[in-house]
Amino acid sequence: xxxxxxxxxxxxxxxxxxxxxxxxxxxxxxxxxxxxxxxxxxxxxxxxxxxxxxxxxxxxxxxxxxxxxxxxxxxxxxxxxxxxxxxxxxxxxxxxxxxxxxxxxxxxxxxxxxxxxxxxxxxxxxxxxxxxxxxxxxxxxxxxxxxxxxxxxxxxxxxxxxxxxxxxxxxxxxxxxxxxxxxxxxxxxxxxxxxxxxxxxxxxxxxxxxxxxxxxxxxxxxxxxxxxxxxxxxxxxxxxxxxxxxxxxxxxxxxxxxxxxxxxxxxxxxxxxxxxxxxxxxxxxxxxxxxxxxxxxxxxxxxxxxxxxxxxxxxxxxxxxxxxxxxxxxxxxxxxxxxxxxxxxxxxxxxxxxxxxxxxxxxxxxxxxxxxxxxxxxxxxxxxxxxxxxxxx
Amino acid sequence: xxxxxxxxxxxxxxxxxxxxxxxxxxxxxxxxxxxxxxxxxxxxxxxxxxxxxxxxxxxxxxxxxxxxxxxxxxxxxxxxxxxxxxxxxxxxxxxxxxxxxxxxxxxxxxxxxxxxxxxxxxxxxxxxxxxxxxxxxxxxxxxxxxxxxxxxxxxxxxxxxxxxxxxxxxxxxxxxxxxxxxxxxxxxxxxxx
Lengths: 393, 193
Hints:
The structure holds two protein chains of two kinds.
Chain A: H1 2-23, E1 26-31, E2 34-38, E3 44-52, E4 59-67, E5 73-75, E6 79-82, E7 87-95, E8 104-114, E9 125-141, E10 148-154, E11 163-171, E12 177-187, E13 193-198, E14 202-204, E15 209-216, E16 224-234, E17 237-247, E18 252-257, E19 261-263, E20 267-276, E21 282-292, E22 298-303, E23 307-309, E24 314-322, E25 329-339, E26 342-353, H2 356-392
Parallel strand pairs in A: 2-9, 19-26
Antiparallel strand pairs in A: 1-3, 3-7, 4-6, 4-8, 5-7, 8-9, 10-11, 11-15, 12-13, 12-14, 12-16, 16-17, 18-20, 20-24, 21-22, 21-23, 21-25, 25-26
Chain B: H1 2-30, E1 35-39, E2 45-49, E3 53-59, E4 61-65, E5 73-74, E6 83-87, E7 93-99, E8 119-125, E9 142-143, E10 150-156, E11 164-171, E12 182-192
Antiparallel strand pairs in B: 1-2, 3-6, 5-11, 6-11, 7-10, 7-12, 8-9, 8-11
């Protein structure tokens, strides 16, 4: 009895422990997120970093360095304990190499990761996780003359509002740029150019970063994946970058069904393949299926269970059609998807055929009957032979 | 009548006092350590906001419970729920996934170990909608890469109400996996995109 009680208490403690860990949240931050330093041979510099712990518990962290020039970083602390809601602070020293032959950006990281003890938690198969953050220490070796790198960022599409195209331009050359401008070409899913947008015009000093903007309000575009190509002109030179974006519509389409032939007299399971063309999860989707005969009379009507679908993804919905009392033949089926007060529909041809299962039953019954008849004949022959033998005696 | 006026006066004073304290508190809260404000008496001010990389693992463990060797289980039906990551910083980030160097691989039967189909992940959209760039995030089942990190979320957004993403997991214990408790620790590292 005492052992039993002890066991129950043990299980309860384990459950509470697992529960406590399960609801625990891991969070960690580092600031600044990036430092960009122009290369100067043998230059020595100190940098201060802040570690953020916004949780209600104390966090133990490990501090590390990695990347191309990690050997040139001096870390004075490799671990730290940060109290709940507190900000830790540490400083590193960095001494640049005496020379770097190739121009470009060299990436060194100062990282902070939560210290985890052992494997994951919980009974059975379980997976735990911790978080870490890295601050980038970029050393820039300028290119000769004028040189830029570009990135294109496309803002979120809001109906009836302009989309914002942002080109981030880093001047990586030794010389300043007097005139910097961009053109953004937008291509539809069939790769046809549908519009061309001009950005603003700026100048840019060597080693600095700027942004060029263009706006566009898309109208009457069908859903799909579009491409934007940014061509940046800097004092007669060209740099290109591109990015894709989705034009969505609150639309779910019936893409296919797993079968069009159904057996008579049973509950047939089949899948309705759907695709979302929307940027958010759509929940409470269900399909109504109406089956019509040749005279357009509804002979069957059924619904699927409610489900949800993720943005821009495919999903199969299970449907069940009871074909008891449905005559063999060809029917028209209308599948109607219902979601967020909208409907989309698709028509298919359903064929109801003789059940293979029934044939098998008949075959078994027939076979059994044949065996019984043969058995009776066999017994009769033996009986008659036996009777003849008795008479002869 | 006088009593009623007195009560109204007392209540009014209390409300005024509380609102003053609240305003004072809000004013204090604005003065966070990572925002420095310098200015002169005339009224112009320079504000420097230092960028922060910060991620939160809202769900930090996935417990599959008892799983039969040779079968498979995943988190896509929310049973068990997947990892939920949130970008609480002030910049877009790339997030990598890897096995923690302090941890061993989840399964060690035939076909188990690092970078095998016995343990896979994929990035998925949380209820807030698409928050990372689908073109460079991993949204199909991919082997957990051992201790060499892989970018799972690319250009993960930081703007509130659109800063969460799920990391789905799939396990396939090898058919000759010895019975017992199996566990692994993963590490998610974020850096500015």
